């Protein structure tokens, strides 16, 4: 009897344990289902996937709030898009007894909110959990009839100024030219007035008609067409003006590639930065773009919850406006303007740098464009003229890379002195105007301009002897030449606020022939350097063998690194002075300035094959060998077309640079 009782009890215990186990399993599974639904909801909310969010909401809860699914998506899109929410952070998510709670912080167009607490029920339908939705899941105290009020105070864009405080980019009074439709008249009068207005504003009549045909337009409402400068305002039948401000660039085309310009935000811009409002003005190119965040500042304002009677229920966020910073550059506006003008009709670039500290004093690219036109709005015709110009006025030439030509010979000489392959008293015997290493070069020969049989390093630099430096390159060998060039900044990124590919020694890691090694030594081959990179490399000759990293903001400090020894630089500089002083020197044109100038010229020829005539780019770098307080690098593309070399064009610029630097003292 006792055994039967024990057995029955044992069986009952097993059954009870099984039931408990099944119950626990079901509860755990149910809890996981709730957590899964909660996680999906918060993740979709964080990612602003409102079309996915609405799929998790119960149909009954939507109806109770008086919403359709489309209403739901529009509400979330309008509310969070309207206040410029760029990021949603969810924290402290908890799921218990079919209830979900969490906290959320929003980064908006006017700043970050405090943490809001949310809670709702999880409703099980068809085996899955869904959200019992209410408008309080948008903002905790929000009711279906409430709306969001978003008021902003636009930050004033900061100025870009030169080293002396002169404006390079600033805000200026302007007028928004527009039309009040009823003042145009009818029929032929209307047509004639629109044509006249379009011509004056440099826009098409079609674009004017399109603006007048917008859905919101009424006969007595002002329809803006284009911003015009204060001095350009003209009275005209049918045309009205509304005061505004616009971005203004005092140097115009002279600094367009450097400073850039601003413009209205695009859909693509907002996609990258959702915090931007649809009418925001942002930097589009140049330093306006690079420093956009600092210049733009932060709009102030308030985000409030407003009831159906228009009364504020709750201020969700309030922030003060923070105007944009004033950014002071190392650029000298007068020097910049003069450098631009002194390029005359040439296509090219000029860079002026302080070789001791890396401050960039002028960065010029020519031909250029008027950034003030870009801000006010270009007609398609004017834009096409720029875009189709074969001289490519939109191209930034101080960051574009070129073969440096014979200016590179100064670097090869310095590397050779430190390596011991070049000596001050060494003389090479070279016959004729052409030379090749041996028969393995086939028909390829290196050509020089002037025939000198006995050539030392000074004469080689004065006459710019290609054969001398080709032989020097071969004697140095690839490893020593490459290692030396890297010390001069090749392959380095200078961390400047504009895009620039590092200077290149060759397209491959190794030269594929002795010809390429020889060509590289005198500045041809596959060498590529921008004018800025050339200024950095040549700074070694005005800085005791150290190159200096460039910078463009005042008070920044640039690092220096040793490229070659001071002894090597002193020897090279002795020859660079003669490049100017010697009547045979390629930069003798500068001797009449009566300044202690050291210089090296270069011509890089671009042609399809040897023996044919190609396009020649002209280069020069020059500095005051005694004061060493500035370095000029100038480039002229296809100098035969412009009729003047880079050396000829900087002749008038050098005294102005000297005077400007003396004035600063």
Automatic annotation (TrEMBL):
Residues 153-314 form the Penicillin-binding protein dimerisation domain. The chain crosses the membrane at residues 5-26. Its main location: membrane. Pfam families: MecA_N, PBP_dimer, Transpeptidase. InterPro entries: Beta-lactam/transpept (IPR050515), Beta-lactam/transpept-like (IPR012338), MecA_N (IPR007887), NTF2-like_dom_sf (IPR032710), PBP_dimer (IPR005311), PBP_dimer_sf (IPR036138), PCN-bd_Tpept (IPR001460). Residues 348-653 form the Penicillin-binding protein transpeptidase domain. It comes from the Bacteria. It is found in: Membrane. Keywords: Membrane, Transmembrane, Transmembrane helix. Residues 35-146 form the NTF2-like N-terminal transpeptidase domain. Belongs to the transpeptidase family. PANTHER family: PENICILLIN-BINDING PROTEIN 3 (PTHR30627:SF25), PEPTIDOGLYCAN D,D-TRANSPEPTIDASE (PTHR30627). This is Penicillin-binding transpeptidase domain-containing protein. It comes from Kurthia gibsonii.
